[in-house]
UniProtKB/TrEMBL annotation, chains A, B:
Residues 466-591 form the Acetyl-CoA dehydrogenase-like C-terminal domain. Residues 161-267 form the Acyl-CoA oxidase/dehydrogenase middle domain. Its cofactor is FAD. Residues 78-156 form the Acyl-CoA dehydrogenase/oxidase N-terminal domain. It comes from the Bacteria. Keywords: FAD, Flavoprotein, Oxidoreductase. Belongs to the acyl-CoA dehydrogenase family. This is Acyl-CoA dehydrogenase C-terminal domain-containing protein. Residues 283-449 form the Acyl-CoA dehydrogenase/oxidase C-terminal domain. InterPro entries: Acyl-CoA_dh-like_C_dom, Acyl-CoA_Oxase/DH_mid-dom, Acyl-CoA_Oxase/DH_mid-dom_sf, AcylCo_DH-like_C, AcylCo_DH/oxidase_C, AcylCoA_DH/ox_N, AcylCoA_DH/ox_N_sf, AcylCoA_DH/oxidase_NM_dom_sf.
Length: 596, 596
């Protein structure tokens, strides 16, 4: 059952929700209008649909394997990566100065979604490379940039992010990897890193590890962490590869999903010390790492959207083909394709509405990123940066938590066949479960949303967004259609629930931190739900207008229906979340520790 | 990380919610009081904890395998089954007349939960045998009973249920397996059955297949389906095993979970016809099958509760051990065990509250089953039968859907380690996904709840239950504690939401079937949530009373906290479900078919 990239919906979101034509007015993005977007998406779709997606099941049944320090990836991955590289896809969003194509994230994000819909395991390699590129762009010296950036941006070399250690996962204060300064300005790195995605593989000739470590004598905790580049192979002055560095893969993990993506344990310095190069200044590693993390978090959100769409498409195909039972409304005499059954519709519509809502949210967030980084006006940059910062935990947290629901429904639509591995639906269910964990668990995203994004500015940014949502409600009410009325009502309820919780968070974060943080993930789910629903409300306004004008009527009507479904089935969840957050803070932490 | 059967909570539910002492007054159950229950549970726990649970991971890593028509189960399963059999566990709930122990379901269900918490794959074999026993007890001739029942009840032979065919899953009207009457009164059976759990294995010397087939010339659809016994080995007049029957396993499935449990494709009649024996009358097969199904559905509900408890216990153990980050309330200086973090608490409490709520619901349902089948007073039997019938789709549907959430949270508590297979948490997530599918998907349970259990009697039974819940609310309000007030409020909101939906279902089932059935699964989730919450409300009343009297204070206080958490975090979900059901019927089915 093949994958078709949802180009039309992506372009709709870019054009009508993210205002791509406005993005294309930012200096440097002049060529990045709708036409470019369409051409890029079509090319990307070709590669994803015909090269990358067909390897997805093989990646599951013939995972990456480890022997003698070497990782062999799934047959076909190396060749596909070669095509990815030759197409210039790694450089899509990166600066032209270093060989990239310099396209806005608004367009690039759609390509990331497609790649992940096709094959999360494959897509992880470029995603990690993106993180390394971001870190070097932000904080790397000219020399580091000159040595590494071009090769990373072409995709000839890949990147990896080395944060986690056995005792240090979410809590990076506990990092123990050690860096000893050398007389020549380099460092020798010693330690063990675990859970390193594509930390070792055979798809590229070099791997550029970005490594958190503690310089000898540095302060304890997060203030003593520095960031280093540690290449698998040292690089000679002429850019050619030199000696093998002292970093070695000692094993890879046996995981529930994303099996083609090797998850390495890397040992640094067992033979005298791995040579590392400081990125930026000593003890500022966490700050730089957050830049990588923020890019990666957004990317993981796109993974959630991608796998959701893929699960949806497979479920639709199955529901059209599988004949079973008579429809309850008697519309078909005898047994019918199960897509005629209301509960199958409910499942498919839930999958569809969540996926489109999250895509709409992520696309508008991407446009904010572009403006935040490239707009000539500092005020515009600042406002967009605030908006984008608020969106990152939502894109990451809400899209990935929702992907668990969507991929579960995908299995469920298949009935018993969904549980049989050959069908393919189960793989999405297994793959998706990592998305709520890596690059910061949902709780970590929620802490960010509560602490840095809501409480710190007294809820100002949150309330600004609520005010924008209220404007969309007014427009919906003014339009007068039944679908718009339904959306306005549910948006209003959800926005009011959101504001109740914002007040609770802001008011109690200091006095009752346990009660507030007990509600942090529900708050994230409420907010993500609301913001995605808001974008669906905006989409509804555009679509009903277009449909009335006879433009692309089938697509536009479908958007209206999907938006109304989102309002009535997904936005309605927010009031219950509010109730549990406001009422339930105390009971969450009330059980005696030894009673568990 | 070992499993400890929750004997105390099981006995609490039996004693205080299901009123076991009253069950023990029913003729035949005189010995089945609390003392017996405790002794049985302790023995069962020994077997489960020390023999069955330790095989669970091996069942996943060394699944049942198929070669040359033979299935070899996971190493150790055969020996464990021997111990299970020798302990008399298969006969626990079956009549003493045929060698069983004749204990009430109220006690037996707890043993089923333990077995499934330990090892779902293993527990499936006895669960299927139970179904075969039920069918023969209900509809088998004396001869069939004499030939098969005793061996099934000892566990020397096992049973299987053969419903599904490639084209006939939820829709049994499409069954094509054919039965040709023979002059000697037997039938020759021809056809292919798929998804047959323990349809072939090496743990017992014979397998008694209960098979749905169509007698030649029978009416089309479900009214032409008959039920047959088709033994793997024919049985001689003296009870010894005779010739191999013409039913053969041709393959087993490669599944996402419950891998130790062989899921067979069975071929009937390739060599002249499998000899089958009619159960009951021709063309009444579906009716008998429903008896098996109802028993099995309840059993699958217990599987959901079992795997939820197991996932909870493993997550608690990990959360106590794993040290990471500083608590937000500053209660620990430096990094602490993650059980100190509010979001980890929220996840653990959610797992705990749902598991206890479902257990409480299932235990009270079991007591109703016992009274419905064995009480001397016909009125009492009838009232309990109605209650039990209403409970079956809830125990099956709500407990298993909830187990998806619970096992997902179980992985999440483990962070990255949860995604690594060796940890064990991922297996529960994979195993649980079948529970919402087999023995009738959640949609099938929901159709049953809407159609036969709610609309058919105009909502009478549903409203009777709501009236009982209202009485519990009054008791809670009268008690005056904060926990009881919180519970009363949330129960009231949930009950009112339930009644709104019952009116909607009853009022619109005929006129707007699509809108009603679009809300069927949300209605099931609302109702299961409410009924489990009601039992938690009753538990709260008992527990705060006991705690006040100084009886078993730690346990009773924990029950109060867990019940309050259930009220504030789980019961609060019902109002959103109501809103989506009442508003969302139209948008669910509004999308044009070709727009998906």
């Amino acid at each position: 059952m093949s994958y078709t990239a949802p180009i039309k919906d992506m372009l709709f979101a870019m054009e009508h929700l993210a205002n791509l034509e406005q993005v294309a007015q930012i200096p440097g993005f002049e060529d990045a209008g709708l036409e470019t977007a369409q051409a890029v998406l079509e090319e990307s779709a070709k590669l994803c649909e015909s090269v990358v997606e067909p390897l997805n099941i093989a990646g599951d049944t013939q995972p990456s394997s480890f022997e003698g320090g070497q990782v062999t990836t799934t047959p076909g991955f190396k060749e596909a990566y070669q095509q990815f590289m030759e197409g210039g896809w790694q450089g899509l969003q990166h600066p032209a100065d270093f060989g990239g194509q310099g396209l806005p994230k608004t367009i690039g994000a759609a390509c990331v979604e497609m790649l992940n819909a096709s094959n999360i395991s494959f897509a992880l390699c470029p995603l990690l490379t993106d993180g390394a590129i971001e870190a070097l762009l932000t904080a790397g010296s000219d020399e580091l940039k000159a040595t590494y950036l071009e090769k990373l941006i072409t995709g000839e070399w890949t990147g990896s992010m080395n944060l986690t250690e056995p005792q240090a996962g979410s809590d990076l204060a506990l990092v123990r990897t050690k860096a000893e300064p050398q007389p020549d300005g380099t460092y020798k790195v010693f330690g063990t890193k675990i859970f390193i995605t594509y930390g070792e593989h055979d798809m590229a000739e070099n791997i550029v590890h970005l490594v958190l470590a503690r310089v000898v004598g540095a302060p304890e905790g997060v203030k003593g962490i520095s960031l280093f580049v540690v290449p698998k192979f040292l690089v000679n002055a002429d850019g050619s590869l030199g000696a093998r560095n002292d970093v070695h893969c000692v094993s890879i993990e046996h995981k529930m999903g994303i099996k083609a993506s090797p998850t390495a344990v890397l040992q640094y310095g067992d033979n005298g010390g791995a040579i590392g190069y400081l990125v930026g200044e000593e003890n500022r590693g966490l700050e730089y790492m957050f830049i990588m993390m923020n890019a990666a978090r957004y990317g993981v959100g796109m993974q959630g959207i991608g796998v959701s769409d893929r699960a949806y498409q497979r479920a639709v195909q199955y529901a059209r083909d599988r004949v079973q039972s008579r429809p309850v409304d008697g519309s078909v005499a005898g047994s019918a394709a199960i897509i005629h059954h209301p509960d199958v519709r409910r499942m498919l519509m839930t999958m569809r509405a969540i996926t489109e809502g999250c895509r709409a949210m992520a696309t508008t967030a991407a446009a904010a990123y572009d403006a935040a980084h490239h707009h000539p006006d500092a005020e515009v940059r600042k406002a967009n940066a605030e908006f984008y910062e608020f969106m990152v935990p939502l894109v990451k947290g809400y899209s990935t938590e929702s992907s668990l629901e969507v991929t579960s429904l995908g299995v469920q639509v298949h009935g018993g066949m969904g549980f049989i591995e050959e069908t393919g639906a189960a793989q999405y269910y297994r793959d998706a479960k990592i998305l709520t964990i890596y690059e910061g668990t949902t709780a970590i995203q929620a802490n960010d949303l509560v602490g840095r994004k809501t409480a710190r500015d007294g809820g100002k940014n949150a309330k600004d967004i609520a005010a924008q949502i209220a404007k969309t409600e007014e427009q919906l009410l003014a339009s007068g259609t039944a679908a718009a009325q339904a959306m306005a009502l549910r948006l209003k309820n959800a926005r009011e629930a959101f504001l109740d919780v914002v007040d609770f968070v802001v008011g109690k974060a200091k006095a009752s931190p346990n009660a507030v943080y007990a509600g942090s993930v529900p708050y994230l789910m409420l907010t993500g739900n609301l913001v995605a629903g808001w974008q669906m409300g905006r989409a509804l306004l555009v679509a009903q207008d277009k449909a009335a004008k006879g433009e692309d009527v089938a697509f536009m009507q479908a958007k209206v229906v999907t938006a109304q479904f989102y309002a009535e089935h997904i936005l309605t969840r927010t009031t219950s979340l509010r109730d549990s957050i406001l009422a339930g803070g105390e009971s969450t932490c009330a059980l005696a520790l030894d009673a568990f």
